[in-house]
Amino acid sequence: MANEYTYNGVSVRNSITGETTFIGNAIEPNIFSSVVKTETYTITEADVLAALNNNGNLPSKDVQVSCSGDRGTIVVDNSRNYLNVYAPNLIASYYEPFISLVGEYSLAGYQRANIGETINYTWKVTNLSKTTIPSLTLTSILDGTGTPFSMSPNEVKEIYLSYVVTEDDIYNNTITEAGTINGTSFAGTPIEMVKPLVMQVAPLRLQATLTYTDSETDMSKKICTLGDVVSYTATIANTGNVPLYNLSFHDDKSGQTETIAKLNVHESRSFNYSLEMTTSPASVRIAGTLTAEAKPGSNKTVNIAIVPLKCYVDLTMVGWAYKVRVDSNSNLKSSIPFHLYNQNITLDVDWGDGTSQSLTSANFATASAATPATHQYATAGEYTIVVDSSDWSNTYICSYGTNLSSSGTPTETAYCNIGYFRMTLIEILNELPAGLKGTCYYNSSSYSYTAKKIGNPFQSCSKLTTIPDNLFSNITTFTSFAYCFSGCSSLTAIPDGLFDNCGLATSFNYCFSGCSSLTAIPDGLFDDCSAVTTFQNCFSECSSLTAIPDGLFDNCTLGATFWSCFHSCSSLVSIPENLFALNTKANDFDDLFSGCSALGDFTLHVGTRNLSYCSNFVTKKSGTTRIVYVPSGSSTQTKFNSVASNLGLTVIGE
User: Fold this and answer.
1) Mean of per-residue pLDDT scores for the chain
2) Crossing angle of helices 88-95/45-52, nearest 10°?
3) CATH class of segment(s) 98-200
4) Of the residues 71, 463, 473, 628, which has the maximum number of CB atoms within 10 A of its CB?
5) Alpha-carbon distance 391 to 363, whole Å?
6) CATH 2.60.40.1470 residue ranges in the chain?
7) In terms of pTM, does the model score above 0.70?
């Protein structure tokens, strides 16, 4: 300090910050003391405004420093102690308003919205600058109104809006929203920003259904009595996701036409009619036509599904009904699958074309006498045949063709022309009658016969596609279902529970052999068949079969013969590991999986100890790992060991 006095309590004060820094006591003359003090200064919005009026530069700030001591206050020479602050880049970051605008939407867990559903969406605005934005307005093109607000530095505002999806939105595939921000910064600078928000909607579905039902139940297989009046309902439903227009519906049977100007989504309209059954027996198909249009000007096509109503008229409402299709291949003929040998029984047959016939045992006594059991139709087409017996307990189901077999006594023989039945059968309409006798087999040694085998009445019925699940519900005493459906090449499925209550059955040899359209076997198909001993060729040549259910044979513990059971199932790709684990009586696995060309790796546990045959158990396939676990020290192990190398098997005792 250059002075002639000594000072005590010397301090220095900054005129801008107002802070005082103590220097010391007894500061003698000509003694130079200095203090280094780093100061900070926060730029204010007023400073920024001043900078904007000064070409973007912050005006100089005069920092006046004064000293004080016990001899009074001395003002330091200002000419040497002014501090000029110049920070143009910093000023720019302050006065430029930075904002972000983000749109988001949700639909309560749905991925895409349908007509009438509400989409909730949000515009999120963030002030990224360090100054206040006093005036902003967000405008939504969907909402149509503006929302005014102001924002402090770093503030986030969320503006919540909603929108109900319209028909036009579905046709356009998307909804395009846009949020526009307009406003003014604190410095008067204009602010404008536009951001789009695209919201997905459900794909356009133009669909309608016309469904016929009767007043009681679905009549798809109902058999009515002649003169019955069927009350039925036609229901038109919009199953799409946009309204339908100018619908026109015509009911074929009543001849009535109805029009509907508009049918909204999920809306349906029903119309009631009645029809007297005047043809016997006949397959009556109740149906109609429906047309509908999309939104005018859209040039879109409406997809329409029609579910008709079918009923079958029968004079007696008793008997067995089935449907046939006759054409030139069958010489326009069909036949029945039953025969008689008792003189006191009659079979009444309604052929479905307006003609009926009563047959007695005389009609089956010779091959030529059996001709009346075959019917000649005038024209090709589909017909519903109904057969009724005066005594089903003495009526026999046919098998094998012309000379059926001896029945009743060694001297009696019955004949049946079953070939035309097999050629024309397309649908079975109800269960076989209670008490029906199976195929008769005459035993010449004991002069006795048995009638407990279904035989093969359905063998080679190549037009049959389905089987009713209750077909055998009345047949609880049959012991054999051998060849029952073999060669039914159009059969696509086996119903669950087909053999429920067939607990006396011992044979399913060739039962489904050659069912080349069959793709699956139902779980538990043989669960009630604990007496079965043989499944020879049961599913052989089922070339569309891809899998076997677990536990298929679990309840068939007496099963001994599985020879060729799945032979040539060329689409079969796997075998359940424990398929034969419980079949401890099995003795014949010859050709069991031979010809299963798609079969890959497998592991199989075999439960029997007494296997006698396993030649060609499976066709060898390179590159596969096939392991068979067998009881250690058993003849089963010996048999598998003898063929393991040739068949590409690894045999392990357990």
Assistant:
1) 81
2) 110
3) mainly beta
4) 628
5) 16
6) 98-200
7) no
